[in-house]
Every structure is written in structure tokens, then in C-alpha cells.
Design a protein that fits this description.
Shape: elongated
Number of strands: 0
Strand content: under 5%
Helix content: over 70%
Structural class: mainly alpha
Distance between the termini: 19 Å
């Protein structure tokens, strides 16, 4: 049945998707802005268009299904979902405020899992009973694998491009790569929309299941992907200028050639992981890709101090979000 609490949860999930958009806008526009191919406004408009365009292509909802199955269905209640969403929104806003490119994906999954585990323990079950460990292991492993894959692909693409560009004049090559950056940025925005919008789709769907509006075996109602892709696109339009600065200049200086390599590598990585239903972090992926283009110049071209700080944020995101969600759920249990 549709209840007021369910409506609140759906609104909060859509709000999280919107926040995800402006939190992660930097992932697909930082390099295209830092190389001055597009102005900031043009870049966010470009990214938002391709975020939403993914709605017409990614119709299998594989990533949404993985997120929905992170917590075992028996331990999913509307309060579990609400606690997870509140924790995820809080961590996303905190990291956005301080310009830390953390993972919106992992904070959502961490919050959902933390609240589910707390509910299970309060009802005499073990934490392992509440989680589908195969899905959890897949998600956690790609905290490391996604940036590494992005970095490796980025290094290969950069080396290929550098060798090919030797056959043309520098001014001509610069002009070509500025144009190609529009395509690579569009590809990254497209795969970002396809990956990240699905995570909230999975949360909304399990909220409907928890309230017996639909069955877990039913197909996803069509309004869910439409609303989620729209929300993340509007969020992207709002920008995320604090994180743009970190992604576009603090890790390594990026030229149009390197921007094409990094964005193309990020798009390829996200396309592969979406195909295998793995909800990875767009932030981790593009950061690894940017590091890859820096490494091809020389190891010292990468500001490793900044990178190490980013890694700490990545490592902490899931446990901190899980802890926040656990505390919030305990408060719910006491007063609701």
C-alpha cells in the first residue's frame, strides 16, 4: 500500500539522485572545463543532456538489480531504506562541501547495508544474514578495480594517441583533440547516467516491494527510470564547482589530448561494468583514468598527496555511511 512514509522515501531517493548529479558533475566535465573546450555552463548542459540520453539505451536495469539485492529482502523495511538514504545524503553533502570527490554510489550502498544489518541484529540475526555477500564482495572489490582498470585503459589510449599525433602538426592535433573532447565527455556523461541513475532506481523499487506495492518478481514500473534519469540530469545542471577544481587541476594538469584519453577510458570502464551489472563509482573510475594520463608523462606529474587523500575518502565512505545509517536506524527504533 502507498503510505505517507513511502512517499517521503521516494522523494528523498529522488533528492539523492539530484544531489548525486551535482556531486558527480565534475567527473564528466572537469577536464573539458580545465582545458577550456567548453565554458562551465556549456559543460554542465552538455553533460546533463547525455546523462538523460542514457535513459533511452540502458533498459536492462542490471545495476539497479544489484543494488536492490545488496540487502536480503527479509531484512528490508521502509525504515531501513529511509535510514540509509538520510545517511547517504548527509555524507554526500559533507564531502561535496569540502570538495572531496567521494563515491555517491558507495555511500548509498553503505547506508542501505548498514541500516539492514542493524535491523537484522536487533531482530536476533547475524550481520551476514542480512547481506547478499556475493553482491557486497563484487561492489567492494571494484573500489580498487574500477580506478585501476580506468588507469590501465587510460595509459594505453594515451600512448596510442601520442604516437599517432606525431604524424600531425601540433596546432592541428590540438584542434582535433579539442573537438574529440566533446565526444569523449559526452560518452563519459552517457555511461555515468546509465550507471548512477540505476542505483536510486534499485532503492525506489525495493521501497515499493517493502510496502507491498509491487512484488520483487514484477518488472520495474516505467516511471522510476524516467524520474531517476531526469533527477540526475537536473542535478548535473546544478554543477559541482568545488569538486571540478580537484578533478580538473589538483590531481595532474590535463591537456585536451589527455582529457580525451581519460574520458574515453572512464567511459569504456563504466560501459564494461554496467554490462556485468557492477555498480561502480564514476568518481573512482575517472580519477584512476586521470592518474593514468599523468603517469604516461612521468610519475611526478601526478600529485600523489592529493591522490592519497582521495583514496582515504574512498575507503571510509562505505563504513562511515553504514555507521551513520546504523545510528539513524537505532533512533528510529527507539522513537517510531
Amino acid at each position: 500500500m502507498v503510505t505517507t512514509l513511502l512517499v517521503i522515501v521516494i522523494i528523498m531517493a529522488i533528492a539523492f539522485d539530484y544531489i548525486n548529479g551535482f556531486h558527480d558533475a565534475a567527473n564528466s566535465i572537469a577536464t573539458v572545463v580545465s582545458t577550456k573546450v567548453l565554458s562551465p555552463f556549456q559543460a554542465v548542459l552538455w553533460a546533463a543532456i547525455f546523462n538523460f540520453a542514457a535513459y533511452f539505451y540502458f533498459d536492462d536495469h542490471k545495476v539497479a538489480n544489484t543494488v536492490a539485492k545488496t540487502v536480503v529482502e527479509n531484512f528490508i523495511t521502509i525504515h531501513v531504506i529511509l535510514a540509509g538514504l538520510i545517511a547517504a545524503i548527509a555524507w554526500n553533502l559533507l564531502t561535496w562541501y569540502y570538495g572531496i570527490p567521494s563515491s555517491s554510489s558507495h555511500t548509498l550502498i553503505g547506508g542501505f547495508a548498514g541500516a539492514g544489518v542493524t535491523y537484522a541484529m536487533l531482530n536476533g540475526a547475524s550481520p551476514a544474514d542480512a547481506l547478499n555477500l556475493g553482491y557486497v564482495f563484487k561492489i567492494i572489490s571494484f573500489i580498487v578495480l574500477a580506478p585501476v582498470i580506468g588507469m590501465i585503459i587510460s595509459i594505453v589510449i594515451t600512448l596510442i594517441i601520442v604516437n599517432l599525433s606525431r604524424w600531425s602538426k601540433p596546432a592541428t592535433a590540438e584542434k582535433w583533440f579539442k573537438g574529440l573532447q566533446l565526444l569523449s565527455s559526452a560518452a563519459l556523461s552517457f555511461t555515468h547516467g546509465g550507471n548512477d541513475a540505476q542505483k536510486v532506481m534499485g532503492i525506489i523499487f525495493v521501497a515499493l516491494v517493502a510496502n507491498n506495492v509491487v512484488s520483487s518478481s514484477d518488472p520495474m514500473p516505467e516511471w522510476i527510470p524516467l524520474v531517476c534519469y531526469g533527477a540526475i540530469s537536473l542535478g548535473t545542471m546544478s554543477g559541482g564547482w568545488r569538486i571540478v577544481k580537484t578533478m580538473g587541476s589538483k590531481i595532474t594538469k590535463v591537456t585536451p589530448l589527455e582529457g580525451v584519453a581519460a574520458e574515453t577510458a572512464g567511459a569504456i570502464t563504466l560501459g564494461i561494468t554496467e554490462h556485468f551489472a557492477i555498480p561502480v563509482s564514476t568518481t573512482h573510475t575517472i580519477t584512476g583514468s586521470i592518474i593514468g594520463v599523468g603517469v604516461t608523462k612521468r610519475m611526478s606529474a601526478v600529485r600523489w598527496g592529493v591522490t592519497i587523500n582521495l583514496v582515504w575518502a574512498w575507503v571510509l565512505t562505505i563504513p562511515v555511511s553504514a555507521l551513520l545509517a546504523s545510528i539513524i536506524y537505532l533512533i528510529f527504533d527507539l522513537f517510531l
